[in-house]
Amino acid sequence: MADIAEPLHPTAITSNRMGDLSIRLRRGAEYVVIPLLALGITAVLFSILLLALGKSPAEFFQLVERGGFGTSFSLQNTLQRSSPLILTALCVALPARIGLVIIGGEGALVLGGFASAVVAIPLVVGHAPPLLTLCLMALTGMLIGGFWIGIVGYLRYARGVNETISSLLMTYIGIAIMNFFVEGSLRDLTNPNKPSTMPIGDAYMVGHMPGTDVHWGLLTGVVLAIALYILLSRTTFGFAVRVAGGNARAALAQGLPVGKLIIICCAIAGACAGLAGFFEVAAIQGRANASLAAGYGYTGILVSFLARHNPLAIIPVAILFGGIVASGGLIERRMGLPDATVLVLQGMTFVVLLMSETLYGRFKIFQVHGAADRT
Asked: Model pTM?
C-alpha cells in the first residue's frame, strides 16, 4: 500500500503563512521606500535651487501645505484638481501593465472634453433632459478618448511604432484639432474674448457632492481606480495582461491575443482620460476652449510613475500633487515666484524618480533569499 502523506501540523501551516506574509511585506516595502526616497532627494535639490534664488525652502513647503491642505477651502480645491490627475494617471498605468509607456493622456483629455462639448450643443439647443445630455456627453468623451489612444496601441502592435513617441505627437494633433474648430466653425460668436464653443448652461453642469464644493469627478475617479485594480489583479483578463507585459513572445506562444490585449488596454486608458475631459467641460469650464489643455495629462504621467502604476496608489499620489498644483497661486503671491515654479518641482521629481529606478533590487534588506522557489 502506498504511503499516505502526513497532514501538515497547524503550527507549520501558520509558519508558512507568516513566511509568505513577510516576503510580500519586504517586497512591497521596496516599492514604497524608494519613491519616498526619490521625493526626499527632490525636496533637497529643490531647496538648493530656492536658496540660490534667495528664497526660503521652509516658507515654500509651508505654503504648499497651507495652499493645498491647510484649510477646508484649500483641501476641497486640492480634491477637485485631483480628479483629472487620477483619471489621466490611469491612462498611463493601464498600458504600463502590458509594457507600454503612453504619455498621450493630455491629447485624449482635450479631445474627449471637446467631443463632449460638441455633442451637447444640439441637445442643449433642443432642451433635452440634463441627465440624458450628461450621460451622452460622458459616453462621447470616453469613446473619443478610447479611440484616440487605441490608435496608439494599434500602431504599436500592427506597425511597430514606438507608443511613447506616437502618443506624444498625437497629443499635439488632438490639441490642434480642437483649436481648429473652436477658433473656426464651432466658435461661440457671443464670446469675443476667448475662442470657445457654445456654453452648455448651468442646468447641464455636473453638480457637487453633497456638503462639498468638489464635483462628482473625484468619486468617479476613485471608483474607477478601484475597479481597474480589481480588473488587473483579480481577473483572467488582468492575468493575461500581466503575462503579456512580462514577456510578449511567451504570451504569444501560449496563445494569448497580445495584439487585442494591447489595443483593449490602450482603449480603456484613453477612455479614462476622455472622461477627465468630460468633467473638465461639464463640471468646470462649461464649454470647450484652450483651458482644457491645462497640463493634467502630463502631471498624470508623474503621478502614475510615482505610484508604480498601481491604480490604488494613484489615488493618494494624485491628491498629493493636486495639493501642489492648488498651492501654485499662493506661492506666486507670497514668494514672488513665477507660475512655472510648480512645473520645475514636478520636472525635478520626474527626473529623480526615473533615476531611482536603478535602485530596485540593490538593497539587501528588501531581498528575500529562497523566494524564487516560491514563485
From this structure: 0.89
- Domains in the chain: ranges and CATH: 31-359 (1.10.3470)
pLDDT tens figures, 155-169: 999 999 999 999 999
Quick: pLDDT tens for 287-333: 999 999 999 999 999 999 999 999 999 999 999 999 999 998 889 88
Contacts of 50-54 spanning 24+ positions with Cβ under 8 A:
53/337
Which residue from 167, 102, 45 is spatially nearest to 300, judged by alpha carbons?
102
Mean pLDDT of the chain: 89
What SS3 state is found at 360?
Answer: coil
The C-alpha atoms of residue 142 and residue 138 are separated, in whole angstroms, by 6
Contact 313, 360 (CB under 8 A): no
Contact between residue 98 and residue 161 where contact means Cβ atoms under 8 Å apart: no
Q: How many CB atoms lie within 10 A of CB 43?
A: 17
